[in-house]
Amino acid sequence: MSDNSQYTILVVDDEKSVRESIGRVLKKEGYSVSLTSNGHEALDILEKNHISVVMTDLRMPEMSGIELLEHAKREFQDIEVILITGHGTIEKAVEAMKLGAYDFITKPFKRAEILSSVRRAIEKHTLASENKFLREQLEKTNESRLVFIGESPQVQNVIKLVEKVAPLPSTVLITGESGTGKEIIARMIHNKSPRANRRFVAVNCGAISENIIESELFGHVKGSFTGATRDKEGLFKIASGGTLFLDEISTLPLNMQVKLLRALQEQEIRPVGSTRSISVDVRILAASNRNLQDEMEAGNFREDLYYRLNVVALNIPPLRERRDDIPHLIKHFIAKFNHELNKSVTGASPETIQMLMNYSWKGNVRELENAIEHAMILCDTEELRPENLPHHFFATKVSQLTHQQGLKESVMEFERLQITNTLARVDGDKKAAAELLGLSLSSLYRKMSELQLDVKEYGHKDS
Ligand SMILES: Nc1ncnc2c1ncn2[C@@H]1O[C@H](COP(=O)(O)OP(=O)(O)OP(=O)(O)O)[C@@H](O)[C@H]1O
Ligand SMILES: [Mg+2]
What we know:
By secondary structure, the protein is α/β, with parallel strands linked by helices. Helices cover 46% and strands 13% of the residues. Helix 13 crosses helix 15 and helix 16 crosses helix 17 (430-437). The structure holds adenosine-5'-triphosphate (ATP) and magnesium ion (MG). Residues 182-183, 247 line the site of magnesium ion. Adenosine-5'-triphosphate (ATP) binds next to helix 7 and helix 15.
C-alpha cells in the first residue's frame, strides 16, 4: 500500500459527529487528517498547510461549502474539493461541480464511497501538481536559453527596445540580415509580454506554398477545396491570446498581403470557404531579412501593410558592424557547446579570437555559432585553436569579403585578414610577420593600431 500519510485531507463540517466520523475513516486508511467546523478556519488551514483534498459540508452557517469551494479554487488552484451533501441538496451539489468541485457524496455515506472519492481526488491532485512542476521547469529552461548576448551599444539599444515594446500590444517589425537573431528577439518580446503564458506561434511565410498559405493562416471549412476533408483551424486561431510571429514576411504573395492587412485592421479572420468572420486576439510580430522599403519600391510589398506592421521598427545590425560582440558570443557558444557536446573547453586562443573578429560574417551570429560548434568538435585541447576552425577561415580570400561595404572598409578588412593570417602562421612573431608582409616592424604596429587589431592580444613575441 502506498504511504497515505503524505496526503492531508481537510474535513470541514459544522456537525462534530460527522467530521469526526469521516476523520476516523480516513485516519484508519493512513491519511493525515485535519478537522474544522467552519469555512473561515478552513481557509486559514489551507493557507498554512499543504492540503491535498478538502471535504466540506454544503450547508454551514457563515460560509457555505460553495463559498469555501470558490475561495479554495481561486487561491489554491490545484486543490481538489469533495462536497458532503445532505438530503435535498443534490441540485446545489451539481451546481458546485460546475464551479470546479471534484465530486460529491451524499449522507448517509458508506466508508468505501469516501475512500474511493478521496483516492481519485488525490490522484488528480498529484497529477496536476506534477504537470505544473514540469511546466515550470520547462519554462525555466526555455527562458534561460533565451539570452541575447552583446555589450555593443547597438545590441544594448536592441535590448532596451525589447524591454520597452514587450508589454505593449503593438506590432513590431524586426529586420536584420540572416542569422542576426530576429527569431530570438521575437521570442524574447513574447516572453516578456503579458501573453507569455499563452502560445508563441512562428510561421515562416516563405516556406508555405502560395496556394495553401491562406488556409494555413486563417483556417478552412470542410469541403472548401479538394482535400479539405474536415474543418481546420488556422494559425491565427491557434495563436489566439498569444503571439503570432510572421517570419520572412516579404515573401507573402500580394493578394495575401491584402488579406493580412484586413485581418490586422479588423482583428477578424474569415476561414477559407466560410461565410462568417471570427474575431481573433493575437499580437503580431513580423520579421524580414530583406529591405522592405526596396521591396515596396519594386512593387512586391504593399505600402499600407508595411506601415501597419512597422508600428515599432527593430533593426538588428549585422555582426560585422559590432565586432566587439564577437568575443562575448564566442564565450557564450563555447559554454553552450561544452554542455551539449559534453566538452570542457576553457576558451579560444588569442589568435583564434583575432581571426574570428576579423572575419566577414555574412551569415552573422548563426555562422559564428556553427563555426564554434565545428571547432569544438575538432578541438582536443583546452583551448580552441585556429586549426580547429572551418577550413575557409584559413584561406580567406577576397571573394569571401563582404560586398555590402565601401572600398575603404573592404581594403581595411583585407588588410586585417592578411595581417592576422600571417601572424597566425608565425605564431604571433611580429618581426617575422612584418618581414613576410614586406613591412618594417614599426609600420606593422602602426597598421595594426589603425586597423584596431589589439597588439597585446595577439601574442607578445616581437623579436
Ligand atoms: N545576440 C545573440 N546572442 C545569442 N545567440 C544569438 C544571438 N544572435 C543570434 N543568436 C543565435 O544565432 C542563431 C540564429 O538566430 P535566429 O534564428 O534568431 O536568426 P534570424 O535573424 O531569425 O535568421 P534568418 O533571417 O536566417 O531566419 C540562433 O541559434 C540564435 O540563438
Ligand atoms: Mg529566422
